[in-house]
Amino acid sequence: MTALRTTLRVLAYAALGAELLVTGFLLAGIRPPRAVEAAVVAVLVVEACGLGVLYRRGGRDAVRDVVPAGVRRVVGHELRVFVSLGRWAARRRHGVPEGADVFPYARGQAVMMYGITFVCVVESFGMWALLRDWPTLHHVVLFLDVYTVLMVLGLHAASVTRPHVVTGDALYVRRAAHVDLRIPLERIASVRRENKYTHQPAEGELNLDVGAQTSVAVELAEPVTHVTFLGRPRPVRLVRLHAEEPDRLARALEQRLTRERTAPSPSPGRPA
């Protein structure tokens, strides 16, 4: 049992690294090498089989003890990506309450994502024709191709179904399936239109660029905590984001802020 736990923990970290590599390739607009795709699938299959054995022997607690939190977050991200495909097909959005203002941002990356999908589909047909005389290899490569196409479309679907949202008390900024940050309106100091095309990592800044562009900058009077892809908390005082209608987003935020700051204070109760 101890040997199984150690092996599964090593495989979990290997799966984490491989998944991050694949996600990085796809977000950068590059198809991952086939060797990387095959390694990811192989590690996930072995890991799934091992976790199944561990679950039968020790239950859910044994599985949680073996799988690192970062791996659980990566698996959760992948599940959100594939769930987004269903929402996209059903034309439903995630996390948009009634009366909220919605601001999409996915159009700026649509051409790139559809381009990657087209290249993957063409390559899939080519490999299907080349490998049809080797059934085992043909099935493996076909699985990798379908997985990659679904991941690319799923990342775009997550961007479509998870827009930025302004409600009566908060701004929710999103980026596909891996960023969903709530910013209370009372913590926003200022909002400005700012087209920016280069973004260098800086302490206290969060850049949610789409197609290497951001169009709105939100400065905070108090920091909010952004949890990174792997679960590391990070205080943020400046958020740059992109929206298809940046002027409307800036106006909506300013109106909500004005309403928030000029709202009458609740009247004191009657003296006893």
Describe the fold and architecture.
With 272 residues, the protein is of the alpha+beta class. It folds into 3 domains: 2-90, no CATH class; 101-161; 165-261, no CATH class. It is 55% helix and 20% strand. It is built from 6 helices and 8 strands; from the N terminus they run αααβααβββββββα. The chain has helices spanning 2-27, 34-66, 69-90, 107-130, 135-161, 246-262, and strands spanning 101-103, 164-166, 170-175, 179-184, 188-196, 205-208, 214-227, 233-241. The strands form 2 sheets. It has a 4-stranded antiparallel beta sheet with strand order 1-2-3-4, covered by helices on one side. A 4-stranded mixed beta sheet has the order 5-7-8-6, with helices on one face. The protein is globular, with a radius of gyration of 22 Å. The model has no long low-confidence stretch (mean pLDDT 83).
Please identify the oligomeric state. Answer: single chain
Unreliable parts: none
Overall strand count: 8
- Widest β-sheet, arrangement of strands: 1-2-3-4
Overall number of structural domains: 3
Main beta-sheet annotation: 4 strands, antiparallel
Strand content: 15-25%
Compressed to H and E, one letter per element, the order equals HHHEHHEEEEEEEH
Proportion of helical residues: 40-55%
CA radius of gyration is 22 Å
Based on Cα principal axes, name the global outline.
globular
Mean pLDDT reading: 83
How far apart the termini lie comes to 68 Å
